[in-house]
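Revision sheet: structure tokens.
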Amino acid sequence: MILGNLPIRRRLTAAILLTSVVVMVLMSGPFVTFEYLTFRQTTIRQITTLGKVTAANSTSALAFENQADARDILGSLAADSGIVAACLYDRNGRLFSTYPEGARAGSFPARPGPEGYAFDHSFLAGFQPVAQGSNGRLGTLYLRFDTGAVMAEWLRVSLEIGAAVMAVILLVAYLLSRAFQRQISQPILELAGTAGAVSERRDYSVRAKKQSNDEIGLLTDAFNQMLARIQELNGDLERRVLERTAQLEAANRELDRSRGELKNLFESLPGLYMVLTPDLKIVAASDAYLKATMTTREGIVGRDVFDVFPDNPNDPNNKGESSVRASFERVLRSGMPDTMAITKYDVRTPEGVFEEHYWSPINSPLRGTDGRVQYIIHRVEEVTDFVRQKSRRQSADSDMRVRLERMEAEIFQSAQRVQATNRQLEAANKELEAFSYSVSHDLRAPLRHIDGFAGLLAKHANADLDEKGRRFVATISGAARQMGRLIDDLLAFSRAGRTDLNIAWVDQDALVEGVIREGHFDRSGRTVRWRVAPLARVRADAAMLRQVWSNLIENAVKYSGKNPNPEVEIGGRLDAAGHEHVFFVRDNGVGFNMSYVDKLFGVFQRLHAAADFEGTGIGLANVRRIVARHGGRTWAEGAVGKGATFYFSLPETKLDPEAAGVEPPGFAHSGLS
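Predicted:
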């Protein structure tokens, strides 16, 4: 629009003035045409009159053939500067006298023409008969008049008058527009000012002032009603968020207190307990364990377990460290408790001397909310006396058997207590998960109201909002939709931890092909180069496994979006031990710094700005949760600017061809890693 970027006041003034100019121009056309035609007719009448007077004065000169009188009569025409040529013809049509004197005969018509005057370009020329009473026609007068100078003078005067009239009309139109535009624009400007205040300060308590009962007044009423509704919804949303936040904080404080009671209880247990992280760092130990191993809590917490308890270098047959390490690896891999046989593992005294000791260990996993093993509980029973007495007194094995049974009973009871503690922790985690689901679910309704009313505001007030106002409304609507997507991802994340697994044989080749086909990843105009190797069939929940592949493939396409030639590679292999299948998705995108690899699979953890790559930061966390529920692992490798590779593993399960109804699949060893 020509006036689209001007303020409404200037637009109204400009519209009125422009309309006035157009009307005046349209009116000027017919008026100028009429004046021009009138000018021509007036000129013809004037020249005709002049011709009649001159012809009447020339009768005697022609009658008596007096050329001197004829020259004097024609010379009197010099008083009219417009007459550029004149002549007299006698009754026989011969040239008798000319004006100006001395003009060439070729400058005049050779013979008289028809009576009357006509325009020839910028000249008016014609013939006038010279007659006298009974003498009849004595001759003919010829006049040639130059209309250019007269026309120029007429045009100048007309333009001056027209300009003066137009200036007066425009001045009057401007003054009237100033008066009228205030009545029209002031209510609209008041409404726009109120909308701007709401957008900038997020203050929904302000109201627009109604100044009339016309359409603008109705718009003001609708706008104020919408503000009231938004204020009500906003207050309700803030109240709900504050209440839920307070409840969540209270639940977190209660959980922290529960854990600190739990820690004190653990340290005071009569049994020999130690807690390790998955990388085998010691985080806690019971007082009884510290006493049995002749260590202090300050001396072992935070250190690697095998740095604190190394093998006895003086006993080449000691395999305590390798046996315990193998048990830890089984727990981490399977997520199940592992009971070891009685193991010889000598203990180093504070003086640095190794003492012979025998132990009966049980290693149990403690899972987090995502199903991953977060801690290993190392429970041991010292059986050194039992082993020694058994070797010395083979005959007293009956008494030893009783003691052994008692020990086994105590070990079983201790294991039961540990399992009860684990169940309490799992129950607390489930309560937090249910609470998170409730918070996410309750936030959806007010967000729909915000997005809906923002859309109504854009629809009803779009024509009256400036660019800034429309941008504010679009920002509100976009933020509401973004938060809706975030809540949807949270709900999906929550469901992934609660939904029962429907385990069956899954054809991963067909599953991945469907994800790529239905994802429409080439819709942006870029062609993704796919390198997909055959994938092994696995036993898993097909719907959840599809979500894993969808998130990883979508992630790879998104973060390779700035590469003009994006490539995504998909493959898998069976690990060397034959215990698990390892699958991967590799891209040539922006990559990431390996220093932050631990943040990748956390909820809301992002290594790139949202403005560069959209997303909610929940996709990879959902991948880890689903894979962990299947007993697998997730990890990633990458470098900045050199792409990234995301891995996940699933336990190997032997395929029964008769039960599955298919031929056993094999891996196509393509060298992918």
